[in-house]
Amino acid sequence: MSAQAVLPAGKPHPAEFKPRDNPAFILYDKLKTGYEEQPIPELGPDEVLIEIKKTGICGSDVHFYNTGAMGLVKLQEPMCLGHESSGIIVQLGSNSVVGKGTIQLGDKVALEPGVTCRMCTDCRGELCYRIDSPYTICEHMVFAAYPPSRGGTLQRYYKLPADLVYKLPESVGLEYGAMMEPLSVAVHAIANKGQLRTGQNVIIFGAGPVGLLAMGVAKGLGANRIVAVDINQERLQFAKDYAATDVYIPTKQNEGEPRPQYSLRAAQDLLLTLGIPARGPGSIDLVMDATGAEVCIQMGLNAVRPGGTHVQTGFGPPDIQIPFFRVTTEEITIKGGWRYGNGDYPLAIDLVNRGLVNLEPLLTHTFKFKDALEAFEITKAGKDKNGKFVIKCVIDGPE
């Protein structure tokens, strides 16, 4: 970390900062939301205060809104929603520095919304300095809008350690800054865990926001073939227009056909239909699954080449059947892709800044803060009231 900023010892800067009110969008129970005033966060010496300007809606937000849970994690008390955000630095803790330079008042930044303990083996062990550092699996992680945390980013003010905010270039607007969080998830899966190289071939299961972003990352990194798999023709057409070189809708399962047998047949049909060899030059080097569906995971493990890699990002049933005979005998690597890690945010920002990943087509809807509930409703439905396809909704900060 760089030398500390020269600020009055022990005092936030500017000391005369006068915050406005702090309204927040609160989830009380499934499908029950409202607005509520929250306390202004008090800064520690290594923290910064951000005035939130844009917040995207994530699938996890929708799960909590719709069901009161996300997988095995359940809403325990009223919670402010939102974690995909960007904003403006309005106050600095006395020691607040980041990266190679000091964060300045007025900087526009993207937020990494998970704070680790920085003390456990995952945070400080021998792996912490590697590019694939496991700090995001810290058991003491406090993540925005993820119980037991109450604090999400759909409010005016939010604080973070200074090294968890990333300055945005002039060319990157705040609305796209809010998309750096899901883009970093895609970068983590494709570039970090998947180690995709120029000229390689990839299959991505799921043409939702994270899957589409993964296709964008793969294209930006120079992938040769990018195969999008989904059951929705409209989503696949969008994927083809956006970044995919090939699209595939899985063949139908026969009546009474066991799922493992069907998954193998569907994987073989995918390769045959698209003219992809099962091994050797032109075969599939990397599979990323953004669905969590058992059949997609099985298909991916049957379609990837011997010695290839499968990265699992999507959530599904806690227990599934995996073709481990093939995994073992053909040395297929299975990796979990959980959120992001070292270098993922900077790479995400750089890819957008250099024009290698285009976020504009994915930002389909924007809403005022007062209309946050409508944003959640159309995201849940997948289409707006006019029938327009929803990819990513972004909500403005409070006015």
From TrEMBL:
Against InterPro entries, the record matches this protein to: ADH-like_C (IPR013149), ADH-like_N (IPR013154), ADH_Zn_CS (IPR002328), ER (IPR020843), GroES-like_sf (IPR011032), NAD(P)-bd_dom_sf (IPR036291), SDH-like (IPR045306)
Record GO biological process: sorbitol catabolic process
Q: Which residues form the Enoyl reductase (ER) domain?
A: 30-391
What keywords does the record list, in alphabetical order?
Metal-binding, NAD, Oxidoreductase, Zinc
Q: Name the CDD domains for this protein.
A: sorbitol_DH
Q: Does the keyword DNA-binding apply?
A: no
Q: Which domain of life is it from?
A: Eukaryota
Q: Which Pfam families match?
A: ADH_N, ADH_zinc_N
What SUPFAM superfamilies does the annotation carry?
GroES-like, NAD(P)-binding Rossmann-fold domains
Cofactor(s) for this protein? Zn(2+)
Among the GO molecular function terms of this UniProt record, one is: L-iditol 2-dehydrogenase (NAD+) activity
What family does the Swiss-Prot or TrEMBL record give for this protein?
Belongs to the zinc-containing alcohol dehydrogenase family.
Query: What is the protein's name according to its record?
Result: Sorbitol dehydrogenase
The species is Kwoniella dejecticola CBS 10117
